[in-house]
Amino acid sequence: MKTSVRAGQITTLLCENSGWKAYVEIGLDPALQGLDVQKIPCSGRVDAGLLLALLERGSAGVLVVGCPKDNCTYLQGNYRAEKRLAVARAALREAGLDENLVRLEFLSSLDSCRLRDAVLDFKRYLDDHSSS
Amino acid sequence: MTGIFLCTCRRKKDPSAWLERAAKSLAGIPFFPYDAMCAPEGIRFAAARVKGEKLDKLLLAGCAALLHEGYCERISRAAGIPASGIDAVVLPARASSAEAVRIIRRAHAALELIPRFEIRRVPLGQEVLVVGDGQVGAQTAREVAALGYRTTLIEKDAPAACAAAADVEILSPATLASLDGRPGAYTARLRTSREGERQETERVFGAVVIAAGAPGADTRAAPFSPGRVIPLADLEGSIERQPRRDWPRLVAIVLDFCVDEGRASTEAALRSALAVRERFRREVTVLLRDVRVAARGLEALYDQARVAGVTFVKHAGSPRIRSSREGVVVSCRDTVLGEDVEISCGLAAVSVDGLPACADPSLAAAAGIDLDAYGRLQQNNVHLLPELSNRQGVFVIGACRGEAYQPEVLRDARDAAFSVHALLSQKILKVELSHALVDGDRCAVCLTCVRVCPFKAMRIDENEKKADCIAESCRRCGICVGECPAKAITLPAYADAIVMARAGMAERPTIGAVGER
């Protein structure tokens, strides 16, 4: 039986230069209410260990949001994040889990609607793929 | 002690019972509800309570306005609490008191884990090094010296082409061998040669401006062939010397041969094309990826060329140039027609700036500056334009960065001088010691952090035999934290434990040791 994922079970790690600013603009949107939102200095901060630890401790899924490519405030962070996400995905795959439980999005501080869509899309995916 | 400030501006209809329940659940933590926390009165309210109750951290909870840019910074200034000790959370509009308390408790727990950071005051050296080539280097040195800094100009080729101002020390010929240290005190190893004898000296500079040129491409190698495929600069010479009867029927000018070029090349191409067209009445075709006219007078020059009958072809990728005794054939993909075209001409002029290898890689390596995809100094990132580099206190301008348009370069020279002034005129740099910390027991000295740090903030501490972060250079991005294979590096304000606490997962069990940091 499929169960619906509550917004609070999704962890979003937002780069404070892009995703966080986008979230601040649209934080009152009903779709984002109760979402676990975390500010990180740069998407390059995430590592596979952190992502897996969050999943292990009960996150339904982790969404990482970074700046668009070649537009990272810290020059390389989003490229690094992409590699780290690949490591986390490989680890999930190896463990026989769904590798799409972690997701990376690149958007700018003005892309509030894209952030909302990304969260909703991720929630929809988790709803469809979560087992009871 | 952490104080919790609750903005109740959206809770006017709430019964006071809601607040009472919340205050009761948060017993023991200083708790201050206020109905205008998100307004300027709120900032004064918080500042007064911080002094009265001797609070050292603040948690703001309530409406979404608390998150707005600059609000926490204003409270930080008014209350005299560092920004890292202030956090804000939004409570859903219809949250029950129990739900609100849960959210507040999580954020409070996370905030408690953030240490208090000391502030280090480091002096900023008032000497500036300019690594220059020719006019741009001299101009930059003059601009910097005019702002009152002791300036040293080094040039690769002897003797210095332009006399800089009298108060500029000129070392020539001299090259930069390495650049270590921190903003405000960079140690530069300068390699000079005097009477054939090579010498190395170490000097300390507060800031460095790189205003070097680009080494020209080899004009004897492909695609050049004498008399048929020539550099664009030589075409200008031919216009002055070559009589009309020697000019072929069609002349092609190729820009963006491999690398995207700037306005300087566009201007040179337009002037040459116009001269050939108007003086010798020959057909001229200019092949380029984009006509770059974003400078004074260039758009008018382009219009003039079009009116005079110069043909423009926008190409994609790299054109192919074949020259034989019969003439030159330039073939490329025309992006407007969407077809491959071939242009047979008697003479082709190729701009040297469009060929690869535009910057001096040894200079980039010595100065610790990244290269972009075309091999020019400084990454192609909008946050760095026009003069910043990946190292704080090191500025890059000029042709080595791919900007050769003279009016623009001279303006960049002034920008760089002002940036130097903005940094060094503080005299003392206040640095919050919230930089990445390396655990010596875990560090395997694998050099990963030294390699991945975009800001050259990581180095190896030879005495302690571990990696070490330079607080003044560190930008607190956490890339090294994510990359360290031994998990030896922590960013104290964004440690894993803080992320876990904020997600309300700190107390949940876990199998492995991940997330311990």
Layout: helices, strands, pairs:
The complex is a heterodimer of chains A (132) and B (517).
Chain A: E1 10-15, H1 19-26, E2 36-40, H2 48-56, E3 61-66, H3 77-94, E4 102-106, H4 112-129
Parallel strand pairs in A: 1-2, 1-3, 3-4
Helix pairs in contact in A: 1-4, 2-3
Chain B: E1 2-7, H1 16-25, E2 31-34, H2 40-53, E3 57-62, H3 71-79, E4 86-90, H4 97-113, E5 119-123, E6 127-132, H5 134-146, E7 150-155, E8 168-171, E9 174-182, E10 185-194, E11 197-205, E12 207-211, E13 229-231, H6 232-241, E14 250-254, H7 263-280, E15 283-288, H8 298-308, E16 311-324, E17 327-334, E18 339-345, E19 347-350, H9 361-367, E20 394-396, H10 406-424, E21 428-432, E22 437-438, H11 448-452, E23 458-461, E24 466-469, H12 479-483, E25 489-490, H13 496-502
Parallel strand pairs in B: 1-2, 1-3, 3-4, 6-7, 6-12, 7-8, 12-20, 13-19, 14-15, 14-19, 15-16
Antiparallel strand pairs in B: 5-21, 9-10, 10-11, 16-17, 17-18, 22-25, 23-24
Helix pairs in contact in B: 1-4, 2-3, 4-13, 5-10, 6-7, 7-8
CATH topology call of chain A:
Rossmann fold
Which class of the largest domain in chain B in CATH terms? Alpha Beta
**Name of the top-level CATH class of chain A:** Alpha Beta
> Roughly what percent helix of chain A?
40-55%
Gyration radius over CA of chain B: 31 Å
Q: Would you identify the regions of chain A where 5 or more consecutive residues have pLDDT less than 50? A: none
Quaternary organisation: heterodimer
CATH architecture of chain A: 3-Layer(aba) Sandwich
Strand order of the largest sheet of chain B: 13-19-14-15-16-17-18
Number of helices of chain A: 4
> How would you classify the helix and strand content of chain A by structural class?
alpha/beta
Cα distance spanning the termini of chain B: 24 Å
Which two chains touch over the largest interface? Answer: A-B, 37 and 44 residues
CATH homologous superfamily title of the largest domain in chain B: FAD/NAD(P)-binding domain
Biggest β-sheet strands, sense, barrel of chain B: 7 strands, mixed
Question: And the CATH topology of the largest domain in chain B?
Answer: FAD/NAD(P)-binding domain
- Written as H for each helix and E for each strand, in order along the chain, the element string of chain A is EHEHEHEH
Helix amount of chain B:
25-40%
